[in-house]
Amino acid sequence: MRDSILAAAVQLFAEYGYHAAPLRDIARIAGIQAASIYHHYPNKQALLVEIMATQMQHLNQSLEHILQEHQDSLVRLDAAIANHIRLHTMYKAEFFIVDTEIRALDPENRPYILSLRDTYEQLWQELLRTGMEQGIFRTSDVKVVSYAIIALCTEVATWFKPEGRLTVQQVIVLYRQLITHGLLLPDQSV
Predict the structure, then answer these.
(1) Under 8 Å between Cβ of 136 and 184
(2) What is the pLDDT of residues 55-99, one digit of tens each?
């Protein structure tokens, strides 16, 4: 039942926004009475926090795994780009909520979700800093470069269509080329 409630919340939060999605509509889509939601979630805010935290934790854990599994900075970069794009196209509605509904978080929940986002940015910055220190990536402002890559890869979810001209893998290859060539020092080859 929790999964049905969560799926209904994702659908409505993504379509109408958090504030415009009443609990009674979430319950209706989930096939339960509105009061039954309270057996699973204390309030609508708890649904929002679970959606955001689940996706951010998944993003963080997968990037941590990439950094632990690979030592080569180019392999790390390729895997991180692919991971970000795959997750954002696979969980398009959930990440749309993560990216647009931060403002809807209550003051007591906002720091937790922002800390998860900050962790993800720091992991990207570690990846980039290591590549710069190794002389593989051109030296640049690590924070700005991390924000640019994250934003570029996140944006794929807004225009990508599974039935479109390109597959997710083809988009990943294009983005890898674009980002990697922008980061590599002139004497590096891909």
Answers:
(1) yes
(2) 999 999 999 999 999 999 999 999 999 999 999 999 999 999 999
Residues 49, 37 share a domain = no
CA distance 135 to 133: 5
Residues 87 and 91: their CA atoms lie apart, in Å, by 6
Q: What is the CATH number of the domain that holds 65?
A: 1.10.357.10
Domain that holds residue 33: 1-42
Residue that has been written with the tokens 């997710």 in this structure: 168
Euclidean distance between CA atoms 106 and 104, whole angstroms: 6
Q: Which of 76, 20, 75 is nearest to 48 (CA)?
A: 20
pTM: predicted TM-score of the whole model, two decimal places: 0.90
